[in-house]
UniProtKB/TrEMBL annotation:
Keyword Ligase (UniProt): no
Organism, scientific name: Actinomycetospora endophytica
InterPro entries according to UniProt: Aromatic_Lyase (IPR001106), Fumarase/histidase_N (IPR024083), HutH (IPR005921), L-Aspartase-like (IPR008948), Phe/His_NH3-lyase_AS (IPR022313)
GO molecular function: histidine ammonia-lyase activity
Annotated pathway: Amino-acid degradation; L-histidine degradation into L-glutamate; N-formimidoyl-L-glutamate from L-histidine: step 1/3
Name by which UniProt lists this protein: Histidine ammonia-lyase
Gene3D superfamilies registered for this protein in UniProt: Fumarase/aspartase (Central domain), Fumarase/aspartase (N-terminal domain)
Amino acid sequence: MPDVVIGVGPVSPEQVVAVARDGAVVRLGREAVAAIDKSRDVIESLAEETQPHYGVSTGFGALATRFIPAALRSQLQAGVVRSHAAGSGPEVESEVVRALMLLRLSTLATGRTGVRVETARAYVQLLNAGLTPVVGEYGSLGCSGDLAPLAHCALAVMGEGEVRDRTGHRLPAAEALAAHRIEPVVLAEKEGLALINGTDGMLGMLVLACHDLRGLLRAADLAAAMSVEALLGTDAAFAADLQALRPHPGQADSAANLVALLAGSPIMASHRGPECTRVQDAYSLRCAPQVHGAARDTLAHAERVALTELASAIDNPVVTVDGRVVSNGNFHGAPLAYVLDFLAIAVADAASIAERRTDRLLDVARNHGLPAFLAADPGVDSGHMIAQYTQAAIVSELKRLATPASVDSIPSSAMQEDHVSMGWSAARKLRRSLDGLGRVLAVEALTAARALDLRAPLTPAPATAAAVAGLRSEVPGPGADRHLAPEIESARSQVISGALVAAVESVTGPLR
C-alpha cells in the first residue's frame, strides 16, 4: 500500500479510505512544511501586536471581545480544546476518527491555518502509530466545525484524554504517547482554534459513505437481476434504446448492469415464447434501473461536493494567500449536510424497492409457481417468511432516518452561532442507513438465490449462477427450516465486502 503524502493540495477519496480503514502510512510533504512555516510567520507577527486578532489574542465565539495578553495565550489555546472536548454518548468508530484526523491534517498542510509544523507532525505520528482518540457521538452541530469531535483529537495530541491503540485497548493518551515516543504538543497562539474549526468529521463520513454506497448499488443491481430472473420476468425493459429515451446516466448504468447480469439465462429463455401472456413486470422489477439509477446520480452529486470540500481549507480565522488573517463562515456544514441527507433518501428508496421484490418472491399469488414463502413444506415450514419481516423493519427505520437533519437548527454560544447545519447528525444517520441497506440487499439476494434453486431443472444466467454459487459456499440451499440469522449475516458479509459482486464480475467483467 503506497504512503499517503500530505501536500498543499487535496487528498483523494481513495487516500481517505486507505488511511481510515487500511492504516496507510502518512507523510507530510516538503511543500506542505514550507506552507505551514510561512503561515506561522504571519500568526507570530500578529501575536506581537497590541491590536486584538480573533483566535490569536482574543477569546472565542461570544467571548471574542476580550483581549488576551501574551502570558495567557497558551492557556487560552489549551483551554479551548479542553472545554470543547465535551462529547458524550457512544464511541465514534475508529475509521471515522482516523478520517477526521487525516482531513484536519490536510487542511493544516495548506498553510491557511497558522499552526506550527510540529503540531501538524503530531497528527502524522498519531495516525501512523495507530492511536485513535476516543470521541463521543454527540457534540457537533455541524457549524464552527465539528467542534467536540475535533477537540477530543486535539486533546490527545496534547497528551490528555483517552485513545485506543491498534489492538483496540483503551488507555490514557499520555501513556500511549509516551509508549510511542511522541512528544505532547504545547499549543501556541491560534493553534487550539485551528485544530477544532473544520468540517472534517462530516466530510470523512461523507467520503466513506460514498465509497460504500457505490459498491452497494452494484449489489442492488445484482439482487434485482436475481429477483427478476427468479420471478420469470423479462430484461426487455432494460434495453439500451429504451434507456436512451430518458438519458439519465445512472439509469443507463444500472440497466446495462441488469442486461449483463441476465445475459444467457435459460430460466428467462424458458418463458419467452408465444405462450407467455405477461405484458409487463411489476414496478419493483421493471423500474429497478430508474430507482437504482437515481440513487447513482444522487451519489455522483454527493461525490462532487465531497471533492470540492476535500480541496478546501476550512478554518476561522483563516490566513489568506496574501498574508491577511480574516474571519469567515467557511466552517458552516450546509453543503455537506444537504448531500448527506439526500443520500439517506436515496438509500431508503433503494432498500424499499428491494424489500418489495423480496415480498413478491415469497407470495404464492405473485411468484409464478414457487412454493409459499419458498418453504420446503409450507405450513410445516415457514421458509423466508420472517426474513422479509426483518427487511420490513429495517426499511421502516430507513424511512425515519431519511428525515433531513439539515432542516433543523438550534442556536448556540449565546446566539452568536445562531444558525447551524446539523451535518454531523446527518452523517451519523447516513452510516446507520447504509448498514440497513446492506442487510436488506443481503436478504433479497439470499431469497432470490433460494428461488433460483427452486426453478431447477432450469438454471440461471451464468452471472447470477455465480452469485448463487458464492452464497452457497457458506449457506446451504433450499430445505427444511433452520436457524436463519447466521445465513443472513453470511450473505450480508458477502454484500458489504464486495465478494458477491466480485464473484459475478468474474463472469460479466466490471459492473458499472
